[in-house]
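Re: Re: token formats

Sure, here are both.
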Amino acid sequence: MKDHTQRQLRQELLATGASAAEIKKLLPIASTLSLLKGSTRPATNGSQKTGRWLNRRTSLTLAASGVAVGICIIISQTVLPTSPLYPVQKLSDSIAVYMHPRYRASIMMKRARQVHQLVADHAGSPQVLATLTDYTREADAYKSLPHANYAAFEYCKTNLQQAATIAPPRVRQAIANSLQSLETT
């Protein structure tokens, strides 16, 4: 092994925390390895090209996966609770509220719209009532914030009152109870 290479290896071993005794043992092994390799130049065989290709492929796969997840999240924002993407919507909404608590008003208004739309689409009562529960939970949390917006509540109230006028009796009563509980708290 050339003196320059030996000095460089010694410095690298010192930098990694090797003791002088360890360096003394490792330098002869490194000399033997360079003899086994047959040359002091790094190998330029096809495995390096394959490694680069795999790294690019992995990067492209990760990028494509990220884009796909992003598109899924964007699409999920417009779905109703009857959609398979609704859990994605709820998860992304939770993350958004965590990052920016004022976003809760938008979620509350979205849930009120969803209740109205479900009633208008004649969705089953269990689905409407579950969405109404989600709305009530969001509204309670939003109402407790110091920056609660009266206009957001009015928007929700209007949506829910419109839904109640066309809802079956059980759902109509649940909407009335939700509106009343929010006014008294």
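Second one below.
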Amino acid sequence: MVEISSPLTGMLYTALSSGARPFAEVGTQVKKGDIICVIEAMKMLNEITAPCDGTVAEIHAANDTLVQKGQLLFKVRN
């Protein structure tokens, strides 16, 4: 299991807009480099990508919430 933590403090977004489909949900197959969420910090959108191929097993942060640097966001089963 690979843990993905936030590289910075900011607002986490799991989709491009409120009605859009999420980048990743539990059970989503991801490839290394796929965007799994976006964190907005200082008016910049920072794409958070999968570090490996696998399946999203757990999501530890909700959409439109403030996350802290180092906070666990996802677990990916590879």
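The chain has a mean pLDDT of 96. The radius of gyration is 11 Å.
- S.
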